[in-house]
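Pipeline run #58 for the internal structure catalog. This entry was flagged by the ingest filter as a single-chain record with no existing model, so it goes straight to prediction. Upstream metadata was stripped on purpose; only the residue string is passed forward. Reviewer on rotation: M.T. Logging verbosity set to normal.
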Amino acid sequence: MSLNRRTLIASGAALAAPFVHAQERPVLRFAWWGGASRHQATLAALKVFEQRHGVRVKAEYMGFNGYLERLTTQIAGRSEPDVMQINWAWLAMFSKRGNGFTDLSGLARELALDQFGDDDLAYGRVAGRLNALPISFSARIFLWNQTAFQRAGLALPQTWQQLFAAGPAFRARLGDGAYPLDGELYDMILLSQSYIQQKHGTPFVDPARPRVAMSPAAALEWVQVYKRLIAEHVATPLPLRASLGGAEKPTEQQPDWVAGRWAGNYTWDSVIGLRASTLAPGEKLALGTFPTLPGARDSGLFGRPTVMYAVGRNCRQPALAARLVNFLLTDPEAARLLGRTRGLPSAKGALAVLQQAGGLPPLELAAHDQIQAQRDAGRLIRPAPLFEHARFQKFMREVFETVAYHKTTEGEAARRLVAEGNALLQRIQ
């Protein structure tokens, strides 16, 4: 063989070697939804993981619309991603018996589970199997426009009595278009449920069994509390919100919120930044006290993981997938890159990294501390995943819509919530 030919073959082999090596790198599929900032931060973190572990991560990301439908099709076809971002409530849809995802308990060597509290881990367990790990935790809070309340000559509400009294006061002092509280239908459903949970000691859905936990009398009062919020001018009515561009139009996009005519919001702590972003200059937000009835043992505060990571049941490289999950949740460099794009981290070390770096918004930290105090005191009872099941949500909203539009009586709505709610929970389960 000539020297030139040997040189050519050697050169070709040298060029091919990196290509072959690249082709042989393990590949993981990772799916998530979000906006531009979440996508950019996640892609940057994935590059670090790929470099450290000699892995290629195929990123499958999109907006929220259509994500659940795509994931449902993939899981049904056993072609789901290796690692996926999920909503907590989806555990009840995809893993009724705890076998819908890989059991992370068997991958404990790859996971820093000591970074999470027992309550955090409990949210990811189904039938004794650890199906998912929480990325962050979110719960309902009151956000008040302190400036608007000053215009109304009122202190921020701290009790249920003060909250209900604020409605007539706002109407009398600031006009019919001024409301102390805004929220979508689901927000008001949850707020009303909190009152009933404090008074009767039970949420709507039993956390342990697929059944309605409220008595017929409690369900009736639930409907009545919702109606009272609207009738007494405390909360913006559903028909009004629908006439202003859509019943589910976010609060921060409502001109009346921007201008300070709607002076409060009952919402997730994870959206504080969004609500604050559109307020007119001079309007100041404050975190409110969560009202509690005297003698209540349960705060009725609704909280659950904001989003979670799960490993697909059909994943062929579960240990490697678990390493990716652990990196995204607990690695200091990943924490710096991801920041608050999925909320304040549940992992202790990742949260400490952000705290030490500084720059965390004081209002978000205050809300985090308020929620954590309720959890530490055992006053935030873990809700039933079935409560946020898509089919059950649709049913519950439909019943309260008939109330909002005066198409049914309080008694008929309460009857449906109990009877039809029980039947639907049994079908879902």
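catalog note: The CA atoms of residues 120 and 134 lie 7 Å apart.
catalog note: The chain has two domains: 25-136+306-357, 138-303+379-428.
status: ready for reviewer M.T.
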